[in-house]
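Researcher: Sequence of RNA exonuclease 4 follows. Predict its structure.
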Amino acid sequence: MTKGGNKTKKLPITTAPSSNWKKLLPAIAPKDGQTKKKRKTDDFEISPNYKGNKKQKLEKLKNSKKEKEQKIQIPKKDELWFGDDIDDKILKDVYGDKNSKALDKQRLVDKMDIADTKLGKYVAIDCEMVGVGPDGEDSALARVTIVNFNGAVLLDAYVKPLEKVTDYRTHVSGIEPKHLESDKAITFKEAQEKVAAIIKNRILVGHAVHNDLKVLMLSHPTLLIRDTSRYKPFRKLAKGRTPGLKMLVKEVLGISIQSGSHSSIEDARFTIELYKSVKAEWEKSFGARSGLIMKKIQEKEEKSKIRKKKVSIKEEITVIKQDRIEEDGSDGSSGSDSD
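Model: Prediction complete. Tokens:
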């Protein structure tokens, strides 16, 4: 009602569709035997910022990578005016293989070969074993390699086993009798001492590194070990099982290794590359406690160096004093009269 007391008229509600809507209905109505389908989630793309969309993002990255690789086409020789003078391999390297994993691997290895051999805070180890005892079932150290954070070789040595070798395992280890019979092969004790000196107070990276330490008869603080075979995100790639190094390098780095027998240099280098690819997240999992312990270890090492330096200085002073006493005594005896 209005202020004046007059009743307001209610407008009738029209339910009949317009003429345009009637014309459109036959076109959008489902045909006989068809039902309206629900839209699948695959029909639209979820925002890349959505946290639960990691799988889709990975698939998208893989597909875009494949598309890029497919776009790279190697021209035919007859399409190039200088084609007759070009070797097929050079043509492939220039036009087609710039992004190939074989070249990526070679470039990475070349970079490691010229890397600084500074020791640093992180080292990676890999050992090759041979079989000893009945049927070669027991393992003995035959080669040990340690590389630094940049993949530069710090130690690579063939090691003479303490027992007689009954299985060289050449197809896997790459070890042959000539390697262990060479004059360049070192004793087990020498290898043990060299490794112990390098890994002391450092973060040790390795794949199934407990096997390497076992065969070397060495121990290392658990907090300073980074075992790529036990890292949870890597184990997920193997559905909870222990992943192989070859599989991890292929899945994580996209590079093929161990095409033939193993190389301890190659294995150690790509183990440190695996670690570097997840270093930030892996180290976060240890929390502040790890950092404090590392700081204490470094302080202890510095104090030890200072102590050794002081001892060496004292020893030098003692030697100098002893030399002077001997010189004074000889001079005195030669200058005395013997009446």
